[in-house]
Design a protein that fits this description.
Blueprint lengths: L4 H7 L2 H23 L20 H69 L1
Length: 126
């Protein structure tokens, strides 16, 4: 039997979620920084033109292949980050929409409450 959405939402400790959100964001940023700071492969070191002879064609080919693999990996990571960013933006838009709906409902409930209070006061004074 499925749990109704309202019951599921009530079960979530929203105070704790909001309290820990900054630390989760900080941890996510550290993870992204750590992924961005991956050391470059040793085969792509800069050439020391003054002290070494020029590399062979095979070595240059190997370096080009390693660089292409690294570039492909970075492009894939960038695409994944863009997808994650798009999902977060969509979630943010849904959250803003839900908050706006809740604001409107709260305003409506306050008006209904005010009318009911006035009605009760009128009935009591009558």
């Amino acid at each position: 039997m499925a749990i109704p959405w309202l019951l599921a939402l009530k079960a979530i400790p929203w105070g704790d979620v909001m309290e820990h959100a900054p630390s989760v964001l900080k941890a996510a940023r550290k993870l992204m920084d750590r992924q961005g700071a991956e050391p470059a492969p040793s085969s792509t070191t800069d050439l020391d033109v003054a002290g070494e002879a020029l590399p062979s064609l095979g070595e240059l080919k190997n370096r080009l292949i390693a660089t292409q693999v690294q570039l492909d990996r970075q492009a894939q990571t960038q695409a994944e980050m863009a997808q994650t960013l798009a999902e977060l933006a969509e979630q943010n838009a849904r959250l803003v929409s839900a908050v706006e709906t809740l604001r409107q409902r709260t305003r409506l409930l306050l008006w209904v409450l005010a009318v009911l209070v006035l009605l009760v006061v009128w009935v009591v004074w009558r």
